[in-house]
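Sorry to interrupt, but I need a hand with the structure work. Could you write out one complete protein record for me, on any chain you like? Just paste the record in under my message, thanks.

. . .
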Amino acid sequence: MARARELGSVLAELMPDEAEVLGLLATIRLAEGRRAGRLDDAGGLIPLDRQDRTAWDAVALADGCELAARAMRRSPPDRPGPYALHAAVAAVHSESPSYDQTDWPQVVALYDLLLAVQPSPVTALARATARSMVDGPAAALADVDELAADRRLARYPGVPATRADLLRRMERYHDAAVEYESAAGLTGDAAERAFLLDRAEQCRRG
C-alpha cells in the first residue's frame, strides 16, 4: 500500500487539480488509516461495526479526508467521478465517531451518485448495506434478493454474507447461519472464511 501511495502522490503532483487523481490518493490514505483496526492480534477479521476506532491512524485519516474533500470540490457538481465518490464514502466512515453514528443517508446518496456514473452490482450491494441502516434490514434484504439474480454475482461471497448479516439482524438465525456458511464456501480468504464460520456458529446457537 505504501507503494500505491507513492505512485498516487506522484500523480497528484503532476495533476494537482485532477479530481480523480485526488480521489484515488484519498482512498489509499483512508484505507491506510483504518488498516490497523481490521485484524485482531491473532489475524482474525474485525468487521467495521466492531473496530476500535482509537486504533486508526488519525494523521492518515485527516490527510485522506482533506484529499477527499478537495476531490469533490474539483469534480463537476452534477457528475463527480467514481474515484472521488469512493473517497467520499470512505471519508464519511472515517469521520464517524461510531458505526451507528455514521451519516448513513449521506452514504446512500453517495452510492446513488456512484451507481449513476459507474453502475456495478457490487456497489449496489454496498448501497443495500447502507440502506439497511436507514430503512431497516428487511427493506435492504429485498434489494439484495434482487441483486442475487445477477449472474455477475453468482460466485461473489459478498451476496450471501450480506444476506446473512441482514437475516441475523432480523433474528432469523437459522437462515443467517446457512448464508454465512454459503459465503464461507465461496471466499478464498482464510481470515474472512474463519470469521464467516464463527458467525454461522454464533447464529446456530441463537
In short: The chain has a mean pLDDT of 93. The chain has two domains: 1-119, 120-206.
